[in-house]
Amino acid sequence: MSDEQPARQPQGAPAALLNGLAILESFSIRRPALGVTEISEIVGLHKSTVSRMLHGLAELGYVQRERDGGRYRLGLSVLELSAPLLADLDIRDAGLEYLEQLTEVTGETSALGVWSGTGTIVVDQVASPHQVRHTQPIGNRYNQWNSSSVRVMLAYQPMKTVCELVDGGLIIPPRGGLTHELIQNELDEIRRTGLAMNKGFTTPEEFGVAAVVRDLRGAEIGCVILSAPSSRVELNDSAEDLQEAVRKTANDISARLGAPVMSENG
Question: Which residues form the IclR-ED domain (predicted)?
């Protein structure tokens, strides 16, 4: 590969366009900031060519120079370019195929929920193929603390808001009641693990697990919910597998929506 040739060159594409795209594609999550020499080595272009093209890309807002002047990062124009695509990807559009995969893999009912401010509302569902199953009908609203979909969304609300919802009866507490300390401890654990569980808390025969879905900004806009009969989960010893499947599905939908990469546990 010569000094003036990018790594790939589809036929009929102008060289300048390909070079510019190659430079933009050299940035990644692992390489968010790069200098001219680094980019030159990655894309196989001479440093003078890279420098000239970076100057043009910076003028258009596709890259920006760091304050020390030595390295570049992607600019906001890249985000603006993707905005029309991302605007069309709401949680239902992005999530359905992943729900179908989740139900196919686990054999249990999967659903998407969004937070209404006082509860979780189901906006999509793929029912289990089993005759004995738990369902999450579209339009159902959950406002019990014991519901995994409620607690997983509350975990990312301000503590003051959560306490007001519980104290005001908008979120129905468990029979034993809730102290603010118990609320804090449980929500801390959900944020730590990235999952909320319902191990027969709402009804003795229900097993549920939920994980949040994030959007382009990293905001928690909804959740993936899986429901199954407790007896089947116990018989198959499948609780851990179901938890990991839900976590993966939530991460996959978040990635489809352009969410920033989070830690393994959310």
Answer: 77-259
Among 135, 109, 138, 141, residue whose Cα is nearest residue 123: 138
Displacement of CA 98 from its chain's centroid (Å): 12
User: Which of 83, 103, 122 represents a domain boundary (last residue)?
Assistant: 83
62, 128: one domain: no
Q: Which of 82, 69, 70, 68 is nearest to 24 (CA)?
A: 82
Neighbours of 180 (CB within 10 A): 13
Instruction: Tell me, yes or no, whether 67 and 22 share the same domain.
Output: yes
Q: How far apart are CA 179 and CA 162, in angstroms?
A: 12
Domains in the chain, number: 2
Taking a C-beta distance cutoff of 8 angstroms, is the pair 118, 166 a contact? no
Q: Please tell me whether residues 161 and 73 are part of one structural domain.
A: no
Mark whether 243 and 140 lie in a shared domain.
Answer: yes
On whether both 43 and 166 belong to a single domain, the answer is no
pLDDT for position 9: 46
Mean pLDDT of each 10-residue bin along the chain, 266 residues long: 39 76 88 94 94 94 88 86 63 92 97 92 92 86 94 97 95 92 97 94 92 92 95 92 97 91 59
Instruction: Report the run of H or E that residue 159 belongs to, with start and end.
Output: helix 159-167
Domain final residue pick, 56, 83, 110: 83
d(CA 84, CA 89): 9
Phi, psi of 247 (to 5 degrees): -60, -45
Range of the domain at 104: 89-256
Q: Are residues 208 and 232 in the same domain?
A: yes
- In sequence order, the β-bridge partners of residue 72 are 34, 65
Q: How many CB atoms lie within 10 A of CB 237?
A: 8
Place of tokens 């043009």: 56
Phi/psi at 110 (nearest 5 deg)?
A: -120, 155
